[in-house]
Amino acid sequence: MISIALSMLFLPLLSAAVTLLFLRKNGNLASLLSVSTAGGILVLALVLIFSDNPVPLAWDTTWFAMGGWELRFGFLIDAPAKLLLFIVAFVGFLIHIFSLGYMADDPARPRYFGGLSIFMFSMLGITLADNLVMIFVFWELVGFSSYLLIAHYFKTDEAAKASRKAFIVNRVGDFGFLIGIVLTYWTYGTVNLSELADLADFSPNLATTGLCLALACGFVGKSAQFPLHVWLPDAMAGPTPVSALIHAATMVAAGVYLLLRIDFLFTEEALGLIAFLGAAMGLYAGFCALVQRDVKKILAYSTLSQLGYMAAAFGLGAPGVALFHLTTHAFFKALMFLGSGSVIHACHHEQDIFNYGGLRKRMPITALTFLIGVLAISGVNFLSGYFSKDAILLWAYNFNMPIFVILYAGAILTSIYMFRLYFITFEGKARSKYAEDAKENSFLMTGPLLVLAVFSVFGGYQSLYPDQLGAYLGPDLSAVSLLPHHMWMIVLGTSAWIIGLLVAKTLFSKVLQDDPLARRFPAFYELCRSKLFFDEIYQIYLSKIQDPLARFIEVMELLFISGLMVRGAAGVAALFSMLAKLCYVGKIHAYAFWFILGTLGFLFYAAGLVGN
Amino acid sequence: MTTDALLLLGSILIPAIGSVLFFGGFAKDEGSLKKLGYLVFGFPCLASVILFLRFDGSAGYNFEVLYDRMGLQELGITFHLGLNGVSSPLFAMAGIVGLGAGLAALHSGAERMHLYLALLALMQSGLMGLFASVDIFFYYLFHEFALIPTFIMIGLWGGRDRRSIALEITIYLTLGALISLGGLVALNILVDAPKFDFPSISSALDQSSLTDSAAFKIYGLLLLGFGILVALFPFHTWAARGYDSAPTSVSMLHAGVLKKFGLYGIIQIASPLLPDAALAWSPWLMWLALGNVLLVGMVAVAQTNFKSMISYGSVMHMGYCFLGIGVCSVLGVGSTVMLMCAHGLSVSLMFLLANFVRKRSNTLEMDEIGGLGEKTPLLACFCIAATLATIGLPGFGNFWGEFGIFLSLGESHEHQIFLVLAALGIILSAVFGLRAIAKIFFGQESEELRKQAKESPIADLSRAEIIPASLILASLLFIGLWPASISDRINNEISNRYSHLQSKNTLSKPSCCPVDEDVKPTELSSSTSD
């Protein structure tokens, strides 16, 4: 069994290495290799999921040992790991296939597919790792592959800035995560997840809020939560399939996955904070999404908002529900991102939704599948999002009213901005030449859409999940089904998406080139456009604090260390040499004078007149 | 003498003989110059890698060479070579970086090439000897062999202000070397050891204990001297100016290998011999090291020149090494050795690549380049890999060193403040490293570059450039993917050498006690009775 896990993990790394070494010029072969690797991963993952394997499954090899510290390379393939493994392998495979069509004309395909393979390697690593340090290792590596893929169109300033921003903002989160890991080791004596779980059961008083918040910094960075959310919208500068895979379905969700891997370390206070921040993110990102014009930015803010829902579910003590929402979100958000990719590809990389319009007739499969995604995320009854999101809402309704109110408002917003996106893009009349000429894409691109649409419809029925996948969700979901106020929740949930649909229909069903919101509610529109000035604040920090501070320290270094200390020391030496040089003037009179002075001094000294 | 010992001796002697041959003008035309160059730099690399693989992994010296009739035995000085767990990976690193620097020099097209190669080969011989010496006198002597060519080469082949920089670096480093020599000699005289090497001094120390104040002063001298040589804040200003101006091969060898001399001295000699003094000095050392990480790191952020940025970045990472030494635990010191190896490789790779960039753009001012990535994808690839290695991405060796040092800082409460402040460095290095990549390789081409590309098309890396770069990069990846390959031998040697330190430092166990077996049943029964 361990050999299957190992070969699954290292297969994509090998594929990336082969691409880098031999296939740099050969786009066709590189893409074929990468896609078949993804297929191989899916097969191996399924074998691994549906076979009984010992937990924990460890490859008994010391990776790094120093002093008393030892790091082993091990896997923990339990129920949540299997579910995420399935999502990564399955959605990853579909997105690889989609990329074949989407990137067909790109000259830099080897780089792109090599990057995707590195990403698969790192993401599988996070999924399977059995200790925090291994998670951290792969954590940084997904950050690297994300950097590489965001920078795919590196000639544009946008991509150059966004890739750097994503990596550095993530590093800020990793700074806290790293400290958290170190403190965890010295508090518990291990970083192994299973051992930690046992120890935390024994002595719950070891857990401190500071420790788990430090660990949660990793989540805040990777899942782009407040206040480190600024990188995700910019990351949309990368190719669209990358946004679907990394920045929607899997990598950003890894933050939530990290939380539920270490949920036993969390204190009440920390959980409360995470729940509140998550709910606030759910609402805030909804407002931001409402006023975006770029189709990918809308979806990015929507991702932020949904991640907020998962964080809220986790913070309210329902990690199973959080993972459930993570799963359904992976299906419908990947579906919508790929749908937007299909539209973008058909419209020659036009991304402003106000330049689309009427695409339903020209791209029927894309439109239909996209609509399914929209319905699912809005929580339309009996689609996947309905089950997972309403489970979160119901849980919040029963345990924390203020958070429920925020989340509910967010749910209404979600359906407004999603139907807005749908109406403006697919209904009405074409508003640009590109949109008029758009044609449905090849089966390479519509095929994955259809498959994902099926999963977006049926992904919410937990009873359909095989035992191996659904085991972790079971307890929390049955707890949800026992909660009171079920009927009331169905009414509330249904009215949320209907309100959203009606608002979107009245506002956005007939639009021209400008946003009706800007015309009707200019103040509200501007406030949402500002995104509460986070980017500006960070920009001010960079240009007004960090850079001047760096220059100031450089000047101080030059002045005090190079100048005063080094030159100063050299100056003192030079002064002595100058004084000494005064004696050597090269005239016999002077030397005679010094000679006499010296002799006199000696005589005085000998006579006891000086000294003693 | 065994074959292994012959390899060890040969890796020092062949560059030395090669140096004489180059100097004597035995290789006149370019072809024979290159052939000799391949031999002179290739042999130490090959030998060091073979010896690295053949090392048996336990504590103590392997492949020993001993010649004690040099006429200096009255002074306790013998010609004694050998490799232990700490020096073996560093020796291999010196061989690999030496080959990279040698290949770069052979293709550099420098004027008076034979003299250039003669000095570089002499430097290489000194570097190999430095890490292979058991005897402290020879350890120091080999360092001088490597150091003096540096001054001459900066003075002759350097860039801007080469004369004044050569003078500054000479005075600065000679001063540092002199102070550390003073410390070493004082140590030898005060403990009255029969031989001038670690085992003798160590056993002599056991019998005649040094007074605490003498130990404190000697350690202080050694720390100051070695600290100057390693560019400890605030004695670091020579480094950035020096590397900036030095020719590529010299920057590679000096920043990558020679600068490790001081750290190596503290780790192999000073700290294990004078553990109490090391603990007493450790707060001073660690605050200064934070100066390296944070202040020099900020200075690196402010740089606009690629090579200056690399220089300051390399000085910044020395701060981590000093932090690891300051912790005075096996984990901290061992991780420092890991970082020394990885840093030597990564920083020399960066200097090598910076030269490739300069060849193509004629400048290293980052604002004036831009958009190089399209013309030279392979160079961009190497540069991104090297930069990410420098900023501690897992998969490259530097990560394990830095991570181990951070981990060791978390051990005691008074060090945790250093953990938090030093970890800020991972953000700082990402800021300046990725900014450089984005400015040089991403975005649109600059005007200057476009003009220049019209005159002579900009080519991607040639084979002669790929080979040294991939040699170093592969070594970095090797350590990164399989850290146990070097960490095991380092661990054995450091645990052995620092055994008395460990018994004094009672912090080796985490604060959480081993789980008490008796608690479990009672807790379970109480929960079932509910």
What kind of oligomer do you see? Answer: heterodimer
What would you call the structural class of chain A? mainly alpha
Q: Which strand-content bin applies to the residues of chain B?
A: under 5%
Count helical runs of chain B: 23
DSSP strand tally of chain B: 2
Q: Which two chains share the most extensive interface?
A: A-B, 64 and 79 residues
- Residue share in helix of chain A: over 70%
Give a short account of the largest sheet of chain B. Answer: 2 strands, antiparallel
Low-confidence stretches of chain B: 503-530
Low-confidence stretches of chain A: none
Terminal-residue CA separation of chain B: 76 Å
Output mean pLDDT of chain B. 86
- Through-space gap between termini of chain A: 92 Å
Mean pLDDT of chain A: 89
Percent range of helical residues of chain B: over 70%
Based on DSSP secondary structure assignment, what is the total number of beta strands of chain A?
2
The biggest beta sheet of chain A is recorded as:
2 strands, antiparallel
Descriptive report:
The complex is a heterodimer of chains A (612) and B (530). With 612 residues, chain A is mainly alpha-helical. Helix content of chain A is 75%, strand content 3%. Chain A contains 27 helices and two strands. Chain A has helices at residues 2-22, 27-49, 79-102, 109-128, 132-150, 157-188, 193-202, 209-222, 231-234, 240-249, 251-261, 268-290, 295-315, 319-346, 359-362, 364-378, 384-399, 401-426, 433-437, 443-458, 467-470, 473-481, 486-508, 516-520, 522-530, 534-583, 588-606; strands spanning 57-66, 69-75. In chain A, a hairpin with a 2-residue loop joins strand 1 (57-66) and strand 2. Chain A is globular, with a radius of gyration of 31 Å. With 530 residues, chain B is an all-alpha fold. Helix content of chain B is 75%, strand content 2%. Chain B contains 23 helices and two strands. Chain B has helices at residues 3-23, 30-54, 87-106, 113-132, 136-157, 162-191, 198-207, 212-230, 237-245, 248-258, 260-273, 275-302, 306-327, 330-361, 372-375, 377-390, 397-409, 416-441, 447-455, 463-481, 484-497, 499-504, 519-529, and strands spanning 62-67, 79-83. In chain B, strands 1-2 form a two-stranded antiparallel sheet. Chain B is globular. The termini of chain B are far apart. Mean pLDDT of chain B is 86; it is low at 503-530. Chains A and B meet through strand 1, helix 5, helix 6, helix 7 and helix 26 of A and helix 6, helix 9, helix 12, helix 14 and helix 16 of B.
